[in-house]
Task: structure prediction
Amino acid sequence: MDTEKIRCLIVGSGPAGYTAAIYAARANLAPVLYQGMEPGGQLTTTTEVENFPGYPEGVTGPELMEDLRRQATRFGADIRFGIVTEVDFSRRPFRLKVDGSKEVEAETVIISTGASARYLGLESENRFRGMGVSACATCDGFFYRNKVVGVVGGGDTACEEASYLATLASKVYLIVRKNYLRASKAMQHRVMNTPNIEVLFEYNVKEILGDDAGVNGALLVHNDGSEKIVAVDGIFLAIGHTPNTSVFKGAVELDAEGYIRTAPGTTHTSVEGVFAAGDVQDTRYRQAITAAGSGCMAAIDCERFLLEEGQ
Ligand code: NDP
Result:
């Protein structure tokens, strides 16, 4: 069978990938997009999205992703099921394998495989996901006005999320497994000086408690083995993210945490003709709209790259 030749291959189907597909299709780059492990990306695991511009009444995560997918398809983007399992970026055209067997050649590649929020791995955490368990305060904090929430983690994200939630919720427990915060001094200072944040050092969550209406508490275990229950309406996990870059290791430059390095202000990676957009290269903003914005940038960078090459 002949190897398929693709002008612009997009890997990943979150807001970054779909937006790149919309722009690349409209620029006549005939993009092919492989959706990856989780078609639609992280947003398909959330319920209501109220901060994506253009949806004054809000929209569910799956609906938003379906809208983006349909918009990309309307302009001719070829959206396929499939996981990229191998890449060779050592020379052009780039060679990639899909689902372990199908081989494709691509003139350019846009990587938008995202990052996955880490979870504690509790069964109860899965059960209440979207019903009180969240990994994004910016997305879901609004639902906890005047309620009590717990935030798990002791890094900058956890402190930032706790500070943000403290402006909405009546009380925030910051649950930290060590006896110190790993966050920057400024963030630590902010947390410690916010009256409605209580830091519970040396505690971790053993079980998330609730019923059909959602979360109503958390069973915490202290490092000395003692346990206690706190009443909370929601639990926010802020224990880090893992970028989905294992397949690109050694092919493009990654930072120490495994995120793809891009040239500041652009989506260019260390390999000419390979671009990265969305959470896979963003440790800072991680929003659907910023991912979509960088997907647009990647398509434009890609189009200009091909133009300069005279293709
Ligand atoms: P970090 O890896 O910095 O922190 C993760 C936190 O979660 C740590 O306190 C860690 O504990 C804890 N943790 C990890 N696994 C578990 C577990 N299983 N149970 C309980 N607790 C756990 O991740 P962040 O997302 O906070 O930050 C990532 C990077 O992004 C950092 O470099 C950070 O500085 C940066 N960042 C910068 C911001 C800014 O500048 N405004 C905002 C947000 C992030 P332990 O300490 O024990 O390992």
About this structure: The mean pLDDT is 95. The longest strand covers residues 102-111.
